[in-house]
Design a protein that fits this description.
This protein is an alpha/beta fold. The chain contains three helices and four strands.
């Protein structure tokens, strides 16, 4: 049986169109036994995807299409470490799939923590600006 291992949903900005319930309904219609979610750089839909796939009797495969920085993650182009000059190489994507439920839970937890810590840092930054002006 064929299994899609590289599927984007509405959470892949500018690249995905499918809403999770409709995607899984269609997969069920086609008789697919498993499907892999690999949104661009996010796991926002992973929990909904997992629950809805299980409810339909489809094996959910949690993944992500990660961005790989060849130099600094802050630079759009890689730099040669010996000269510091740009190499002209563009960043690329790598599709990562969780091998088991433990890895899937860790991936979702890590993504959740990254979102929380990023939001927390922004909140601390904005509140410190207000408190210093008082």
């Amino acid at each position: 049986m064929f299994t899609h291992l590289h599927v984007h949903t509405e959470y892949s900005l500018l690249d995905g169109l499918s809403r999770i319930p409709e995607l899984l309904d269609r997969a069920k219609e086609l008789g697919q036994e498993a499907i892999g979610l690999t949104d661009h750089g996010v796991l926002y839909g992973a929990i909904q995807f997992y629950k809805e796939a299980k409810a339909r009797g489809i094996k959910p495969i949690i993944g992500i299409e990660a961005y790989v920085a060849q130099g600094s993650r802050r630079s759009p182009e890689a730099q040669d470490p010996s000269t510091g000059l740009r190499t002209g190489k563009q960043p690329y994507h790598m599709t990562l799939l969780a091998k088991n439920s433990l890895l899937a839970r860790l991936a979702v937890s890590a993504a959740d923590f990254a979102c929380w810590s990023s939001a927390s840092a922004r909140l601390r930054s904005s509140t410190s600006r207000f408190s210093s002006s008082a």
